[in-house]
Predict the 3D structure of the following.
Amino acid sequence: MKLQKKELTYKSSDTEEIIDKVFYRQMGYYIALACSKTGITPNALTISSIIIGSIAGFLFYSPEIAAIIAGIILFIIADIFDSADGQLARLTGAMSKFGRILDGVGGNIIFVVIYISIAFKMIDGGATAGMIILLTILSMYSHSVQSALADYYRNIYLYFREGRSHSEIDSTKDIKILIKNSGFFKKIIYTLYFLYTSEQEIFSVNAAKLISTAQARFPEAMPADISELYTSLNKKNIKYYNLLTVNTRVIVLFISLLLKIPIAYLILELTAFNILLIYVILIQKKNNDILISKIINYQ
C-alpha cells in the first residue's frame, strides 16, 4: 500500500506507539509542514524543544497544581516539537547525524532538569535529603539505561526489518572519531552521546555482536529469510521497548505530580521499569543468540 506524505515523515510505522501515531506525529507533521515553508530548520525545532521542555521541568518544582498543569502542557508542546524536528528533516531531506544526536541528547537534558526539580521539591517538602538524592541518582541512571537499550533494540529491529539506511545504530568507535574531529559545542554533544552509546554496548553485548556478525556476513543486503526470522522473533517485543521510552514514563510522572507524590515516580522507575528492562534484555539475548547462530551457519 502506498504511504501518504504524512506517513513518509514517520521514522517507522512498525515501531511507532499509538499515542505518537494519533497525536504527536499528527501535530508534528503540520508543524514540520509549516516550518518547511518558512525556512525553520530541524535543529532550531530541537533546540526549541529542549528549552520548552526544560521550562516544564522547572515548573514541576512548584507545589502549586496550576504550575504543574502548565508544566505538563509545556512538556507536551516540547514533545510535539521533538516529533516535528525529525519529521521536518525527513520532509525536507535535511537529515544529519548531528541533528539526530542533538535530538536524542536534548531529551536526556530535559529529563535531567525534571529529576533535579522533583528532587528539590521533595527535599523542600521535608524528605530526607540523602535518601532523595540517592533515589534520584539511581532513578536517573536506570532511566538512562532503559531508554538507551529500548532505542537500541528498536533500531536493530529496523536494521533487520527495513535495512541499514532506516536504522540509527552507532558504535562508540564511530563516536570517538566524531569527538576528535569536532568543535567545542559539537564535542560536548558527541561526548554525551558517546556515554549513551556505551550504555547500549555494555548492557547488550550480544546485540552488538549480532550487528557486527550480520554486517560482516552480509555487507551488501540482508537476506529476506534472515530479515523475516528477526521480525518474527522480535515484533511482539516492540510494545515492551516502547514502554521503556517516553510516553509511558511521562504518564506515570504526570500522575505522581498531580497526586503530589513524586516519590512514587522514582520508586516505579527503580522497580517496575527495571523489572521490565531485565525481562527485555533476557528475551532479546535469547533471540539474538538464535540469529547469530543462523547467520554464522547461513548457506
The radius of gyration is 20 Å. The first helix runs from residue 18 to 36. The chain has a mean pLDDT of 91.
